[in-house]
Amino acid sequence: MRRAGGQALSLLAAPLNVHILKTLAEGPKELIELRRAVGSPPQSTIRVYSRTLAELKVLEQRRQGSFAGSSLYSLTPSGEALLKVGNVLDGWLDESPDGAIELGSASAKSAVGALVEGWSTNIVRALAAKPLSLTQLNRLIPKVSYPSLERRLAGLRLACLVEPQPGEGRGTPYRVTRWLQRAVIPLAAGTAWERRHLAESTAPIGRLDVEAAFLLAIPLVELPKGVNGKCRLAVEVRGGSSPVFAGAFVIVEEGRVVSCSSRLENEAEGWVSGTPMEWLRRMDGHANEGLETGGDVALALALTDAIRAARASKV
Q: Cα separation of 23 and 61, whole Å?
């Protein structure tokens, strides 16, 4: 099962989808024109891909005459928005430790595919909290078989998303790379697109998604040296009849994050809370519209400002 953001990034991992989106961004095309522009794949292939995108309302097909070949394909507002997510993903791929990767390439397909699999199986969530070995991951994620975990972990390592580090016990612990931490940016963009355009058919934002996003994002923040305190960052997620909150508890000393955990019950001096979309808008550069703050408001605002600013920083 894909988690929030996984559907959007999976669509953009497919090179042909990227080429179709970029071609139609130039203007409507008949199927034969579209096929030529994206490298002349087999007609059956282009039809399958365009049909899938049309079913997702990413593009639309308008028949110009009595023949199927005269249909005109164009991007919908949803497709234009997905292409913007692609631009965000492209910016992240440019920061690859092995050198810039072009969106729509085989290398991009491998890197984004590894990211989506690691995100969807909660490997990313687990490693964002602390370095773990394959055996430890197997204990934490029992619903995924050991061979599947091993394959996905190998994919993450090959893509430079995790790296081994020295350990004291048996097994090699792996930790997330800074590039994987930066992946929270396209993941957030993909999640926002899903909530706006495919809310009924994609995974809702859950507790583990929120925790993973904060655990990846907080190490990226840069704060003024005078900032100190304990702050709770909370997101209201779906929880049946009563609200359920997930997020991060952050301790800052002289502008440096010294601790970040998902345990929200700790006593905080400042706090920020809001819905997933309010947080996503903030991460996308918008004002703190809708987010509620309390306690040490200066601390709370400093952290939300730093999270927003981290989007524009480089690895």
A: 15
Secondary element (H or E) of residue 260: strand 256-261
Contact 89, 185 (CB under 8 A): no
Structure tokens at 18: 């990227």
CA distances 214 to 110, 206, 235, 307, Å, are 25, 13, 10, 9
Q: Which residues, in sequence order, are CB contacts of 265 under 8 Å at separation 6+? A: none
Among candidates 182, 180, 174, 187, which has minimal Cα distance to 130? Answer: 174
Which amino acid is present at 133?
A: S
E strand or H helix at 292:
strand 292-295
Place of tokens 């508890």: 249
Nearest Cα neighbor of 279 from 195, 173, 158, 174 is 195
- Rounded alpha-carbon distances, angstroms, from residue 120 to 58, 98, 116, 142, 268: 23, 24, 6, 14, 31
Under a CB-based contact definition with an 8 Å cutoff, are residues 134 and 150 in contact?
A: yes
Are 195 and 277 a contacting pair, CB within 8 Å? yes
Q: How many CB atoms are located within 10 Å of the residue 210 CB?
A: 24
| 246 close to 213: Cβ distance less than 8 angstroms | no
Average confidence (pLDDT) per 10 residues, the chain, 315 residues: 88 96 94 90 91 94 66 93 96 95 96 96 95 94 94 96 85 94 94 92 88 92 92 84 86 94 90 89 74 92 87 60
